Amino acid sequence: MSRINPKQKKLAKYRRMACLAIALHLPFKSSLINMYTALAWSRYRKRPKAYGHLHDCDWQQTIDKIHATARKNFTNTTDFHQRFRLTPSEFTGLLELIKHHPIFHTGGPCKQAPPMYQLSVALYRLGHNGSGANMNGVSHTFGVSEGTATLWTKHVVVAIISLEKQAMRWPDLATRAALVKKFAEEGIPGGCVGVVDGVMIPFYQTPACTDAADFFSHKSRYGYSVLAVCDADKRIVYAQYNFPGSCHDAQVFNASGLIQNAAQHFTPGQYLLGDSAFPAGDYCVPIIKLQCNAQHLEPPGCLQGLCVRMKNETDEAIATGMIRACFILHNLYIATGDWYRQDNNHDPLTDAERWELEQDRAQWVQNRGAGNGAGEEEQGEVIELMGLGTHTQHRVMREMGLELTVRRQARGRQARR
User: Fold this and answer.
1) Could you tell me the strand order of the sheet in which 383-385 lies?
2) Spatial distance between the Cα atoms of 300 and 231, rounded to a whole number of angstroms
């Protein structure tokens, strides 16, 4: 039996009373009819005119105070950076890029809040995860309602996505040639133009849909499986979205437009470096380690430092938009400098990181020389490129000096037999 809410019960009572008053020609029949009509046209049976002070502070005053404090203490902007994951100058630069987007100027009777306030709330939500990105917490932090915080986030996401073509694009022919040289300097010769890996974006809660099981990943969480390709500077140059978490990285890679239209993205001889989850082919070289106690050359950790902190929505369009916006923000400020500055000579590596990289490269060269002069039974430094039947992997192995080591191991195994 269906449940009848209090409003429906009250409407049925007023209707019976009004019908009885009309039938008996009672003098107060018009009042009963008006009461019935007013209740029928109202959404709620009882609703106060004012709900009181749900939020202790004014949202405009709160956000202005945060920005004023950052401008006053420009030498110490730690609090501002923890809130929005950007420095004040980076925040101003991003605001200049999106403030003229039509999404902020709809032209309706009610004017929107200035883009600065909407961007502040959206960046706070995109920059936190877990309880920090809870809508109730966001609304109380800034003094806005939950619906307003959600709407402002959608506006900012749409505006940031409009920057996707200039912030995240596949490198052209000349840029790919420069990437080949840059990766060769890092010890990865043979035409490498990027590093590919899968990114698991977990959901905040189980999707409310019939195919929710498809989003259950091998990490025992519901989420999206996103494919990302980074260049030598850790910038994302390609991303494939809209795959459920149950899809393997190899499945997403083969179904992506990057491989479906490989002739438009690669010059003959160019490839992507990935881990053992990706299939071997002319455009992908998966690389794994054999000996856990030996020194190995590993793929650059371009994607290991990629941290997308967000609260996922069950709605696919909203979730995909938030992921795309986070990827774009990652590209804009990966160098920890002002992206809108015309400064293309900025080095994203610190002195300590560069010194460590040089030490690793020297150790790799030393082990490589020791391995070439050793006997048949000596293991040395070994890197196995999976799927050794394709010409791309053979060529890369020869240029890395690894082919003789692998063949020497094969002869050693035959001798032991």
Assistant:
1) 236-240, 223-230, 192-202, 271-274, 284-289, 383-385
2) 10
242 and 372, same domain (yes or no)? no
| 198 and 287 belong to one structural domain | yes
* pLDDT tens by residue, 154-188: 999 999 999 999 899 999 999 999 999 999 888 88
Q: Is the pTM of this model over 0.70?
A: no
Total tally of structural domains belonging to the chain: 4
Range of the domain at 305: 171-314
> Which residues neighbour 27 within 8 Å (Cβ) at sequence distance 6 or greater?
none
Separation CA 355–CA 359 (nearest Å): 6
Strands 271-274 vs 236-240: parallel, antiparallel or unpaired: unpaired
**Whether 176 and 267 share a structural domain:** yes
Same domain, 403 and 288: no
Residues 158 and 177 in one domain: no
* pLDDT tens by residue, 256-302: 999 999 999 999 989 999 888 888 888 988 875 444 333 333 333 33
Separation CA 166–CA 232 (nearest Å): 18
